[in-house]
Amino acid sequence: MFFSCKKQGEDIDMPRKATGKINTISVIIDDQLWNGEIGDSIRNKFASPVIGLPQEEPLFTINQYPIKLMEGFMTDSRTIIIVKKEEKNKFEIKKNQYALPQNVFHISGKTNDDILENIEKNAPKIIQIIKETEITENQRIIDQALLNTKIITNKFHISLKVLSGYSYVIQKSNFIWLKKEIISGNNSLLIYQVPISSIKKDSNLISNIIKMRDSIGNLYIHGTEPDSRMITEEGYAPYFSKIKLDGKETYETKGTWELKNNFMAGPFINYAIVDKEHDRILVLEGFCYSPSRKKRDLMHELESIIKSIIILK
């Protein structure tokens, strides 16, 4: 009825849906700039190696297009960075400029040095926004096929969005292991809780977390060989940072796991949440085993699942 009342010649302004693979960005820049130091700077910033992976993989996959091809399929990309030489130096973020959801970053300068300075100054902010957008997009994909997580909610008093491809492998009073089989291996999610005193603030936090996760590996995660159990790989120091998850202080640890006395290894990401209300450290960890495939997006899926957590009252 409403459409029938529309005046002839009017268009219904419906935003296009943003497209593209996870962690992929479109860079709109002339070939001359792309093949020089400006292109080098963009690649160094946005295709730098992801921390915590055993092999080098880029932070984002970059697709470059010349300015003259701006009008076309790349305008539907979820993330677009447009770099131009113009009469004034500018950095601008436009949300949903051509599609929804979308971030378009406009970077311009009078000279190459001006553009380079603009990239250097704003790259951390751009990367943070892209990361948040990609986590949200992955969570939207997960929303379309959710696993029944009543067991998790009842056991740990949390809400968590888990993809339906995962299944319960082990269920104990304070421990759950979920796994998703893939062509070249598997993705795993661990949820467990330990006493709040397990991680002491005035001591070596990383050492405490490694000790904690190694004890869990010793209890529950074993290989087929005798005395084969999961441990934190000793040859590489894990990356450690403090963040907030669901508003609570959280220790984020990224590194490599291995099966002791076996030939299996891969990356892990561990989140230890200080949950004072429930007097516990709540731990959510994702790890993958995929020796013949790239691991960036597998780990990103696990991170997206973990970051959907809501701790219930």
Short description:
This protein has 313 residues and is of the alpha+beta class.
- Structural class, from helix and strand content? alpha+beta
Oligomer: single chain
Mean pLDDT over the full residue set = 91
Strand content: 25-35%
Major sheet summary line: 8 strands, antiparallel
Low-confidence stretches: 1-12
Name the overall outline.
Answer: elongated
* Helix content estimate: 25-40%
From the N-terminal CA to the C-terminal CA, the straight-line distance is 46 Å
> Count of DSSP E strands?
17
Could you walk me through the main structural features you see in this protein, from its secondary elements to its overall organization?
- With 313 residues, this protein is of the alpha+beta class.
- Helices cover 26% and strands 34% of the residues.
- The protein contains six helices and 17 strands.
- The strands form four sheets. Strands 9, 10, 11, 12, 13, 14, 15 and 16 form an eight-stranded antiparallel sheet that branches. Strands 3-2-4-7-5 form a five-stranded mixed sheet, with helices on one face.
- Strand 10 (175-182) and strand 11 (185-195) form a beta hairpin.
- The longest helix has 32 residues, at 112-143.
- The protein starts with 15 loop residues before the first strand and ends with a strand.
Quickly list its features.
disordered N terminus, alpha+beta, 6 helices, 313 residues, 17 strands, single chain, 5-stranded mixed sheet
Topology (elements, then pairings):
Blueprint: E1 16-17, E2 24-28, H1 31-34, H2 37-46, E3 61-65, E4 79-85, E5 90-95, E6 99-100, E7 103-109, H3 112-143, H4 150-156, E8 158-159, E9 167-172, E10 175-182, E11 185-195, H5 205-220, E12 230-232, E13 239-245, E14 248-259, E15 265-275, E16 280-289, H6 296-306, E17 310-311
Parallel strand pairs: 1-6, 2-3, 2-4, 4-7
Antiparallel strand pairs: 5-7, 8-17, 9-10, 10-11, 11-16, 12-14, 13-14, 14-15, 15-16
